[in-house]
Amino acid sequence: MKKIITTVVTLFFILTCGWAVAEEAPQKVKDLADSTLAKLGSDPVIVAAVKAENAKGKTLDQIKSMDQKWKATAGIVDYMKALMDSDCGKHLRQIQDSEPYYAELFVMDNQGANVAMTDKTSDYWQGDEAKFQKSYNGGSGAVFVDDVEFDDSAQAYLCQVSVPVKDGAEVIGAITIGIDVDKIQ
Questions:
Q1: pTM metric for this prediction
Q2: Residues lower than pLDDT 70 in the chain
């Protein structure tokens, strides 16, 4: 009886609180990450955008201030739209449109601040998140494939793949690609 009550209580919390166990990315996503997606980190349009953003010399305090403003803003406003309508943002949209499994793409500078994106991200600063920390990797760079999770805004099961953006051998930022695992072959 105690086991049944525990199971019912656990299910109740999962359903009401949104607790769920994340699932490891399928091998086909890992393979895509190590081949096609890793190459995006040296795309000339992406590299140029990250270099330009890094050259602005923003402080972490400035980035965190923008992050607070970003999170407090409903919808998409001009400064967000500018990241989507930039040359890099338009280029990301072309990449997104090239395959049905690309749910979102966004590029980050050397501190994890957004540089360009296809869709509004939930926050401006990714520097405190694993997607940036593991792919930028303190300037060493690494491919990072996160677990599969349900994305409320996309209403799909997504796996975020993050790869370093490199200017030659130097890691200068990162790019995250949201992969719709149900659409990948």
A1: 0.86
A2: 1-21, 153
